[in-house]
Amino acid sequence: MRFIMSLVSITLISTILLSLFPHTPAAYGPLNYACCVKYTRNPLPFGVIKGFIEQSSREVCRIDAIIFFTKNNKKVCATVEDKWVKAALAHLRSKITKLTDKRSQPLTTNELKNTNPRTTNSP
To answer: Cβ(43)–Cβ(91) under 8 Å?
Structure first.
């Protein structure tokens, strides 16, 4: 009888302790992640877009979407099927390509002289 009471007590305490710990958010995706459930059909002006991410229906969310981030910190859900979305993505990708191409080019000798903080032009 004493053994059963000990077993019940251990089970009860274990259940209470486990219920106090939050579930692991990694199993369900980030807690601050909000899925797109519908698309906007109103085109965004390119000047207000500061970035984007792709939402996949194979992960946490139910639909595939492009989530644009605006300069006002808004999230706008769109489908890649719309022409304005394709144009915005192409424009953003070309900007990224230009930035990465600039970084991969070697500096010229004059540019190196101008960027070296130890170089002084003393008379």
So the answer is: no
- The mean per-residue pLDDT over the stretch 7-12 comes to 70
Q: Which residue range forms the structural domain that includes residue 40?
A: 28-105
pTM of the model: 0.56
Q: From CA 20, how far away is CA 8, in angstroms rounded?
A: 19
Q: Which long-range contacts (CB under 8 A, 24 or more apart) does 114-119 make?
A: none
Alpha-carbon distances, residue 93 vs 33, 43, 85, 88, 99 (angstroms): 24, 18, 12, 9, 10
pLDDT at 119 over 70: no
- Specify if 51 maps to a domain: yes
Q: Which two tokens stand for residue 36?
A: 């797109």
In a domain, 120, yes or no: no
β-bridge partners, 66: 54, 78
- Tell me what pLDDT residue 49 has: 93
Tokens, residue 112: 């190196």
Ranges assigned E (strand) in 1-123: 49-55, 65-70, 75-78
Six-digit token pair at 87? 């144009």
